[in-house]
Amino acid sequence: MGTEEEKMSCYADIPVSSDEEVCSIIGKAVVDLSITGQPVNKATLGLKLLAMADQDQDDERILLYWIARRAISQPHKFADARF
Protein backbone atom coordinates (compact mmCIF):
# COMPACT_ATOMS: atom_id res chain seq x y z
CA MET A 1 0.00 0.00 0.00
CA GLY A 2 1.45 3.41 0.79
CA THR A 3 0.66 6.72 2.30
CA GLU A 4 -2.53 8.57 1.43
CA GLU A 5 -0.48 11.01 -0.67
CA GLU A 6 1.07 8.16 -2.65
CA LYS A 7 -2.35 6.64 -3.31
CA MET A 8 -3.77 9.97 -4.44
CA SER A 9 -0.79 10.71 -6.69
CA CYS A 10 -1.76 7.75 -8.87
CA TYR A 11 -4.79 9.76 -10.03
CA ALA A 12 -2.51 12.31 -11.69
CA ASP A 13 -1.07 9.56 -13.90
CA ILE A 14 -4.44 8.57 -15.35
CA PRO A 15 -5.24 10.18 -18.72
CA VAL A 16 -8.12 12.64 -18.95
CA SER A 17 -10.07 10.18 -21.08
CA SER A 18 -10.18 7.96 -18.00
CA ASP A 19 -12.18 10.68 -16.24
CA GLU A 20 -14.89 10.12 -18.82
CA GLU A 21 -14.67 6.37 -18.28
CA VAL A 22 -15.04 6.83 -14.51
CA CYS A 23 -18.12 9.00 -15.07
CA SER A 24 -19.49 6.40 -17.47
CA ILE A 25 -18.91 3.61 -14.94
CA ILE A 26 -20.69 5.61 -12.23
CA GLY A 27 -23.55 6.32 -14.64
CA LYS A 28 -23.90 2.64 -15.50
CA ALA A 29 -23.99 1.75 -11.82
CA VAL A 30 -26.70 4.38 -11.20
CA VAL A 31 -28.79 3.08 -14.11
CA ASP A 32 -28.38 -0.55 -13.01
CA LEU A 33 -29.47 0.32 -9.46
CA SER A 34 -32.44 2.31 -10.76
CA ILE A 35 -33.58 -0.44 -13.10
CA THR A 36 -33.60 -2.94 -10.25
CA GLY A 37 -35.47 -0.51 -7.97
CA GLN A 38 -32.64 -0.13 -5.50
CA PRO A 39 -31.94 3.18 -3.78
CA VAL A 40 -29.09 5.22 -5.24
CA ASN A 41 -26.76 6.51 -2.54
CA LYS A 42 -23.08 6.31 -1.63
CA ALA A 43 -23.44 2.94 0.04
CA THR A 44 -25.37 1.24 -2.76
CA LEU A 45 -23.18 2.79 -5.45
CA GLY A 46 -20.05 1.61 -3.65
CA LEU A 47 -21.39 -1.92 -3.40
CA LYS A 48 -22.55 -1.93 -7.02
CA LEU A 49 -19.14 -0.73 -8.24
CA LEU A 50 -17.45 -3.40 -6.14
CA ALA A 51 -19.69 -6.06 -7.69
CA MET A 52 -18.99 -4.70 -11.18
CA ALA A 53 -15.24 -4.82 -10.52
CA ASP A 54 -15.51 -8.42 -9.29
CA GLN A 55 -17.07 -9.41 -12.62
CA ASP A 56 -14.40 -7.67 -14.72
CA GLN A 57 -11.10 -9.30 -15.72
CA ASP A 58 -9.37 -6.17 -17.10
CA ASP A 59 -6.94 -4.75 -14.51
CA GLU A 60 -7.17 -1.22 -15.94
CA ARG A 61 -10.97 -1.22 -15.72
CA ILE A 62 -10.82 -2.64 -12.20
CA LEU A 63 -8.64 0.33 -11.26
CA LEU A 64 -11.28 2.62 -12.77
CA TYR A 65 -13.96 0.99 -10.61
CA TRP A 66 -11.75 1.62 -7.57
CA ILE A 67 -11.30 5.24 -8.59
CA ALA A 68 -15.05 5.60 -9.13
CA ARG A 69 -15.72 4.19 -5.64
CA ARG A 70 -13.17 6.61 -4.19
CA ALA A 71 -14.69 9.54 -6.11
CA ILE A 72 -18.11 8.76 -4.68
CA SER A 73 -16.98 8.22 -1.11
CA GLN A 74 -14.46 11.08 -0.99
CA PRO A 75 -15.21 13.50 -3.85
CA HIS A 76 -13.13 16.31 -2.36
CA LYS A 77 -9.98 14.16 -2.43
CA PHE A 78 -10.71 13.03 -5.97
CA ALA A 79 -11.15 16.63 -7.14
CA ASP A 80 -7.98 17.77 -5.37
CA ALA A 81 -5.97 14.97 -6.97
CA ARG A 82 -7.21 15.75 -10.47
CA PHE A 83 -6.47 19.48 -10.53
Give short descriptive properties of this protein:
83 residues, mainly alpha, Single alpha-helices involved in coiled-coils or other helix-helix interfaces, globular
Describe the model:
With 83 residues, this protein is mainly alpha-helical. The protein has one domain: Single alpha-helices involved in coiled-coils or other helix-helix interfaces (Up-down Bundle), CATH 1.20.5. Helices cover 80% and strands 0% of the residues. The radius of gyration is 13 Å and the shape is globular. The chain starts with a helix and ends with a helix. The model is unreliable at 1-9 (pLDDT under 50).
Summarize this entry quickly.
With 83 residues, the protein is an all-alpha fold. It has a single domain (17-82), classed as Single alpha-helices involved in coiled-coils or other helix-helix interfaces (Up-down Bundle). It has helices at 4-12, 16-35, 42-55, 59-73, 75-82.
Instruction: Tell me which oligomeric state these chains represent.
Output: single chain
Low-confidence stretches: 1-9
Instruction: Give the tally of structural domains.
Output: 1
Mean pLDDT: 80
Class by SSE composition: mainly alpha
**Number of helices in the DSSP assignment:** 5
Layout of helices and strands, plus pairs?
Elements: H1 4-12, H2 16-35, H3 42-55, H4 59-73, H5 75-82
Helix pairs in contact: 1-5, 2-3, 2-4, 3-4, 4-5
